[in-house]
Amino acid sequence: MTAGQGPAPAPDSGHHRPRDSMSKPRIASGPRTFMRLPWVEDPLAEGVGRIDVAVVGVPTDSAVSYRSGARFGPEAIRSASILLRDHNPATGIDITRTLSMVDAGDAPVVPGYHELTLSRLEDHLTPLYERGLLPLLLGGDHSLTMAELRAMARVHGPVSVLHFDAHGDVLDDYYGVKHFHGTMFRRGVEEGVIDPHHSLQAGMRGSVHPDDVDVGKALGYEVIDWPELAAMAPEVFGRRVRERVGDRPLLVSFDIDFLDPAYAPGTGTPEVGGPTSYQALQLLRSLGPLNYRSLDIVEVAPPYDHADITSHAASVIAFELLGQVALRTRAASTDTSETDPEESGAKA
Description:
- By secondary structure, this protein is an alpha/beta fold.
- It is about 35% helix and about 15% strand.
């Protein structure tokens, strides 16, 4: 048995795993789901078994300010993800043995009606949080995070956020509009769904508005811009995140334009001079077993991609985040198994 890998779940255990790529080639393995996972459109339905992670596509780009096309992101990320395997070398864990995961299809969106899309997405996600599932959202433009935050806060109260992005997304408005893909992390604080004093933004750079970083800090965020982050060892970054967030319910939001456009050309608002894909993965691997409650990968715009570079980057970023979730799950399982039964009974 491989280190860090438990026994395979029994066939009737209700544990959801990907289709076996050795029984059929990946390119001939049926409908394109994330990581070839089972397609379960209603993960809360009776009889579907235990589900830890539900992958949800959010094909909307009604709130972009420059290049549209992110509505095609979920489809492209799913297609690229068929290359992903089960074992995560960074953690030594077989993700799909540790986490029961399904692809839950796409959330309801209304093209051209941004506020209605946010409302429907919030209602779609809230039951998942109520039942303890962790949604992995595939965007879609970054405005979807506003609905994600509202739904999380219904269940957990104000949440911590770890935000990877070339932009702070803390504008007050855009031509008088209060909700678009550059305002969520200001609106979230104002609405009380984000706890900024236990949240962190990382990667800001480029020709941003001169007060972007200052506004983020004034709102209460810890902000690490890209020049500072580039000079920082990944383990130092991970420690700062853990100190900032603690064990609070955490949303990790990853805008693909965090990467330099050489590594992610397919995005709506590219910013030159950012990290490589390897640097980004090292930062994610440094995070450790935080209290992950929601993940999103946003702003993948396939019309501007080349050779699916961006979609593959997004799928691997999602894979690494799931590796950290599995690390948390494995740690919790170990803690439970090592608890003295008599001590547990005495405390009950």
